[in-house]
Design a protein that fits this description.
The protein has 329 residues and is an alpha/beta fold. It contains ten helices and twelve strands. It has an eight-stranded mixed beta sheet with strand order 6-7-8-3-9-10-12-11, sandwiched between helices. A four-stranded antiparallel beta sheet has the order 2-1-4-5, with helices on one face. The structure holds iron/sulfur cluster. The site of iron/sulfur cluster has 12 residues, from loops.
């Protein structure tokens, strides 16, 4: 599979409000992140709330400020002033947001909501828009009559289907889904997960999935990137990471959720302490105040990503071996 999206050393930072005559200050939500998404695959970015995963996803589509680094879409440099590349990215990368209640304009009919990208990109005239909206509603499992109704007339799961239909309208190659299940009832989550899987198979889509839900990640993703305080700390194929996490943070995240499949908890200690503030991150390895393996070196030297095998890397001075990671089923 060839690469569709490549992010190189991307940093995202936001200005903090300061008083008059005080030097401007910033918070760095994403620091030097590099990753890629291949055609037809799903890469999940996981981490605690505040880890920077949403800022990373939003920066790809221009909704968060990329301060440094590069974003290449289909081989073209999006941040370097290539207007064609930017236009293609805006059409071919679409976003599905967490909250299907807040992301749909309550004043617009479903017809107008789903047709909006077609109007923006001027790809269809009015009659072709109506036909395309009906096709899209069918693709996401909603009846044609839904086109004339308004968001408040639908359940949460149906609204997320409408949001997915809108994202599919301009025939994207990549969908960035930011916690697409977390606002839904558990009983509805599996239906939306199945829809996402079916659409990927039928349309050849790629997903960049932002989630803290390991069951969803296990179901949908091919590879996982784990973020901690703005940095990628581990990247691995999904089964490798679930069976033998190499980074102590990944192991702690997994120890805090029931094991996928049998519902039992994993061995190992769950996360302790709070995520530090990105305004004032700890020196050395940012995870060291919470890490049970922290040594003196960790307090002063930030670990660089280390390749463990093809497609696997970890940023840790003392990564876990398979036996320590609680790999036994
Ligand atoms: Fe823990 Fe040290 Fe690895 Fe950081 S570098 S995760 S503190 S062992």
């Amino acid at each position: 599979m060839s690469e569709l999206l490549r992010i190189e050393a991307l940093s995202v930072r936001f200005a903090l409000r300061t008083g008059w005559l005080r030097p401007e200050r910033h918070v760095q939500a994403v620091s030097d992140v590099s990753l890629y998404v291949r055609r037809g695959e799903t890469l999940a970015v996981v981490g605690e709330s505040g880890s920077g995963k949403t800022s990373l996803a939003r920066a790809v589509v221009g909704l968060a400020p990329a301060w440094r680094g590069q974003i290449h879409f289909d081989g073209r440099d999006v941040l370097g002033g290539d207007r064609t590349a930017l236009r293609r990215l805006r059409r071919e990368v679409q976003m599905v947001f967490q909250d299907p209640f807040g992301s749909l304009d309550p004043r617009l009919s479903v017809q107008d909501i789903v047709a909006e990208p077609l109007r923006i990109h001027r790809t269809h005239d009015a009659s072709a828009q109506r036909k395309r909206v009906l096709e899209l509603l069918d693709q996401v499992g909603l009846p044609a009559a839904a086109a004339q109704r308004y968001p408040h007339q639908f359940s949460g799961g149906q609204r997320q289907r409408i949001a997915i239909a809108r994202a599919l309208a301009p025939q994207p190659q990549l969908i960035i889904a930011d916690e697409p299940l977390s606002a839904l009832d558990v009983s509805i989550q599996s239906q939306v997960m199945n829809l996402m899987s079916e659409l990927r198979a039928r349309l050849g889509l790629s997903y960049l999935l932002v989630s803290h839900d390991f069951a969803a990640v296990h179901h949908l993703a091919d590879r996982i990137a784990v973020m901690y305080l703005g940095r990628i700390v581990e990247t691995a194929p999904v089964d490798d990471l679930f069976h033998a996490p190499a980074h102590p943070y990944t192991a702690a995240l997994l120890a805090s959720v029931p094991r996928v499949g049998n519902g039992k908890r994993r061995p190992g200690s769950a996360l302790r302490g709070e995520l530090p503030s990105p305004v004032n991150p700890p020196p050395g390895c940012a995870f060291h105040p919470r890490c049970p393996r922290a040594a003196e070196r960790c307090r002063v030297e930030a670990p660089l990503p280390l390749a463990l095998s093809a497609g696997r890397s970890v940023a840790c001075h003392f990564p876990l071996g398979p036996a320590e990671a609680g790999a036994a089923p």
